[in-house]
């Protein structure tokens, strides 16, 4: 099992650099960041862009995998994004993971001036966006006749270092997005969504999510073991960063559910991601080693 971290792009690089280099030094599997223009309680606080953040992180790390967790169509075109991702994969010497989601309905959804998308349109865009990125990462040239994201005679040269492309992880909570994940993705990103889980415990909600994903894979006659499974600790009733023992117990329960990778947040003081720095370092240093033996 692997331990990874989300490092929010909310600190100036002089400080943020130390977080990325520590994650690399501590032996974590991956360092991810969110791809938003502004986000939740950080709406009126510092918030930097995903692409330059990951590019900078690639230059100060040597083994840590890197990527958006997740990017979306809310304010990106798949071709421009793909060109950026190819550059990050090159600068990192092949350490890129590409997380893609449908995008939320928050600040990013209408900042560029368009009307809010319906649930149907958002899913349609998600399918076209993710499919386009997957294809553009593989092809040196492309023409895509998409409804939302057409591409005419593009060039993606020299392409990514990873062949045939970097791994693509799709964020999926509902049946339609799970079906897309089962069809095309290398990995699945899931988390306890408060809006969907209601009064159900986080573990019960995630157990149901795993069952749904396994059903989606079975319908496509796909080996369940061929899908890398990523659990992001986000909302819910669990506190894995309360202590090292709490973390091991939490990770163990999700290993039993079939997850291959668990992701926690780098502490941010005075935010929902506040955490004792000493406990967090112990979890990262010792937890990464412990999980690697499971």
Describe the structure in your own words.
The protein has 294 residues and is of the alpha/beta class. It has 9 helices and 10 strands. It has helices at 13-25, 50-60, 78-91, 119-138, 175-184, 194-197, 202-219, 244-256, 277-292, and strands at residues 2-6, 30-33, 65-68, 98-100, 141-144, 151-155, 168-171, 187-190, 228-232, 261-265.
What attributes does this structure have?
8-stranded parallel β-sheet; about 290 residues; alpha/beta
Task: Write a concise synopsis of the structure shown.
By secondary structure, the protein is an alpha/beta fold. The protein has helices at residues 13-25, 50-60, 78-91, 119-138, 175-184, 194-197, 202-219, 244-256, 277-292, and strands at residues 2-6, 30-33, 65-68, 98-100, 141-144, 151-155, 168-171, 187-190, 228-232, 261-265.
Give the low-pLDDT segments: none
> Percent range for helical residues?
40-55%
> What structural class do helix, strand and pairing data support?
alpha/beta
Largest sheet: 8 strands, parallel
Strand order of the largest sheet: 3-2-1-10-9-8-7-4
Give me the number of helical elements: 9
Average pLDDT taken over every residue: 96
Distance between the termini: 6 Å
Explain the layout of strands and helices.
Blueprint: E1 2-6, H1 13-25, E2 30-33, H2 50-60, E3 65-68, H3 78-91, E4 98-100, H4 119-138, E5 141-144, E6 151-155, E7 168-171, H5 175-184, E8 187-190, H6 194-197, H7 202-219, E9 228-232, H8 244-256, E10 261-265, H9 277-292
Parallel strand pairs: 1-2, 1-10, 2-3, 4-7, 7-8, 8-9, 9-10
Antiparallel strand pairs: 5-6
Helix pairs in contact: 1-2, 2-3, 3-4, 4-5, 5-7, 8-9
